[in-house]
Amino acid sequence: MVYVITQNCCKDGSCVPVCPVDCIRPVGAAGEFTDTEMLYIDPEACVDCGACLEACPVDAIYHEDFLPARLERFTEMNARYFQHHPLQTGDEPVAERPTLAAGTMRVAIVGAGPAACYAATELLGVEGVEVDLFERLPSPFGLVRAGVAPDHQDTKLVVDVFHDAFENPRFGCHLNVEIGRDVTHEDLLAHHHAVIYAVGASKSYDLGIPGEDLPGNEAAADFVGWYQGHPDHGGDQFDLSAERAVIVGNGNVALDVARILLLPRDRLAKTDIADHALQALADSNIKEVVILARRGPRNAAFSVGEFQALGFLPGIDVIVDNDDLDPHAGDDIETVMKLEVAREYAQRQPSPGNKRIVFRFMTTPAEVVGNGKVQGLRVVHHGFDKTGRLVPGAGHTELIETTLILRSIGYQGSPVDGVPFDVDQCIIPNDHGRVLDHDGHPLPGVYVTGWIKRGPRGVIGTNRTCAEETVTRLWEDFDDGKLTRDVQDRAALEELLTQRNADPVGWSGWCAIDTAERKRGVEASRPRVKFVDTAEMIAAAKA
Ligand code: NAP
User: Fold this and answer.
1) Which terminus of the chain has a smaller tally of CB atoms within 10 A, N or C?
2) Nearest atom (ligand 1) to Cα of 303
3) In the predicted model, is pLDDT for residue 473 greater than 90?
4) pLDDT tens digits, 306-319
5) How many CA atoms lie within 13 A of 100 on its CB side?
6) Mean pLDDT score of the chain, rounded to an integer?
7) Are strands 374-381 and 411-412 parallel, antiparallel or unpaired?
8) Using CB atoms within 10 A of its CB, is residue 339 exposed (0-12), middle (13-18) or buried (19+)?
């Protein structure tokens, strides 16, 4: 009997070091990004001790005897990973760094999402290091609060991993402080030996097709912000009056959005979805969500765990509109399993009266059609030349009627004042976390981590490896004597914030907001009822 890792896996590897027989894979060194969607436990090696279950921050690990039906497939998925990647052990343990004298290493981290939090946790593991974290919003945790779907509450538990860091006396928490508005990049350098930017990527790309300005063609990123109660999107509105919505792109964000559009009110009402979205979705007419992909099922961007979970949603059929569902020689195990699940969906009979998620492939948006607002999306199907070779966009065109198009085609980062920016990749240019100037030389003391470093890819735990890589570079520079400038201390920083009329919310302020939201949640039988307005949050922080 063994333990099994399931859908929620955040991949941060908290389970890996506690396993007495080292049977959880794949794991890499700092900055070595393993390309699987999740981690797996080798059932042959597992000794049934349960240490991994205790360590998992997101409740993704189950004993195989207690797997709910919707997760039973994961027993086979864990085992099949090791059939293709036999377990190898024997990595060297990493040496601990010696304690530093107080004030020898002060690091500023900009952003408070998972990448920032993992970097802070990693740095504070070295005695003597001081960390100051700055975040524009009065709330921490970035995409854990504003990205992880409301119906994935277990995944949000990952924030518990960061509590020790936030409560460490060497940690300074400065929420509601914006770089560029309240303090500058130069201010940060004057008060810290190193600055790590972890500002994420929150803007959507455009499709670049005619008609894109029509109201009703919206960014999935904005829709997510709206239903998550992100203060930037509290006033947004989405037309949910038609029976069909179309999502362009088939990554995990598209699947999140499709579920939120179709889940029954009673399911959403058990989550921390924003109140305004709960009301609007309860009145929604949407019965069908079409998810469009420009490539075929073998190249689908969603992960197999999220895809198979759709099949367990109440009152929702999953339709796969494609018959090219056989694996090819050399396909990785996750692709093989994705196609297995797709074949199962393709064989299912839809139930009358059910809502529908329809997956369509090999289809590219060509024009947003409408008169004053979106009325449809013209798409072009892929065709084949005389030799049978695929020619993108060479097939017939079709108008899909809808009043709501959500572009879920990836996120892009935005520039930070005073810091180099790569406009082509929409990231801060860097070499494994060291920020590079316009000539490609490392900028002394400036680092980057998370989506603004590597682009919008990976799950929450990917940021742990990413942050470890950046922090490793920072220590290399420290050991080379490159981070020895005299800098001002935390008292001077706090004085500067006062001079600038900043209104920082500290960790205790956030705890007060958190408590108030949870209290509102208890009254409504929900995990929390979020504040959407920053003024309300700040008032709760001070109450
Ligand atoms: P994503 O996984 O990169 O998917 C983007 C999708 O957009 C792909 O299907 C891509 O197609 C398509 N696309 C890009 N440009 C396009 C264009 N011009 N026209 C049509 N389609 C286009 O991005 P995401 O869904 O935003 O997710 C971001 C990251 O967050 C991913 O790593 C994801 O796994 C992670 N995430 C994870 C979870 C979870 O674990 N539950 C939830 C949400 C997000 P091509 O493949 O053909 O380029």
Assistant:
1) N
2) 34
3) yes
4) 999 999 999 999 99
5) 20
6) 94
7) unpaired
8) buried
Residues 53 and 137 in one domain: no
Residues 34 and 164 in one domain: no
pLDDT digits (tens, 9 = 90+) for 407-416: 999 999 999 9
Q: Ligand 1 centroid to 428 CA: how many Å?
A: 20
- Distance CA(124)–CA(169), nearest Å, equals 10
What per-residue confidence (pLDDT) applies to 461?
A: 86
User: What is the number of the ligand 1 atom nearest to the C-alpha of 458?
Assistant: 32
In this structure, the residue with its CA closest to atom 1 of ligand 1 is: 251
State the pLDDT at residue 208. Answer: 96
- pTM higher than the cut 0.85: yes
Our mutation pick for probing the ligand 1 site, out of 6, 143, 156, 253, counting the most ligand atoms within 8 A of Cβ, is 253
In the reported structure, the alpha carbon of residue 456 is separated from the centroid of ligand 1 by a whole-number distance in angstroms of 8
For the cut 90, the answer to whether the pLDDT of residue 33 exceeds it is no
pLDDT above 70: residue 388: no
Q: What SS3 state is found at 524? A: coil
CA-proximal residue: ligand 1, atom 16 (nearest): 409
Helix, strand or coil, per DSSP, at residue 265: helix
Q: Give the DSSP letter of residue 159.
A: G
Q: Using alpha carbons, select from 411, 482, 440 the residue that is nearest to residue 252.
A: 411
> Has residue 522 been placed in a domain?
no
The span from the CA of 432 to the CA of 143, in Å, is 22
CB under 6 Å to ligand 1: residues?
A: 207, 248-254, 256, 293-295, 299, 301, 303, 306, 408-411, 456-459
Window from 19-23, 72-76, 366-370, 384-388 with minimum mean pLDDT? 384-388
> Residue 58 C-alpha to ligand 1 middle, in angstroms?
22
What's the chain's length in residues?
A: 543
Distance (angstroms) between ligand 1 centre and the Cα of 110 equals 25
75: exposed, middle or buried (Cβ count in 10 Å: 0-12, 13-18, 19+):
middle
Confidence at 96, pLDDT banded by 50, 70, 90: confident
The predicted model gives 238-254 an average pLDDT of 97
Q: What is the CATH number of the domain that holds 147?
A: 3.40.50.720
Tell me which residue of 294, 295, 305 sits closest to 341, measured CA to CA: 305
Q: Which domain holds residue 170?
A: 106-202+413-504
Domain boundary among 380, 410, 440: 410
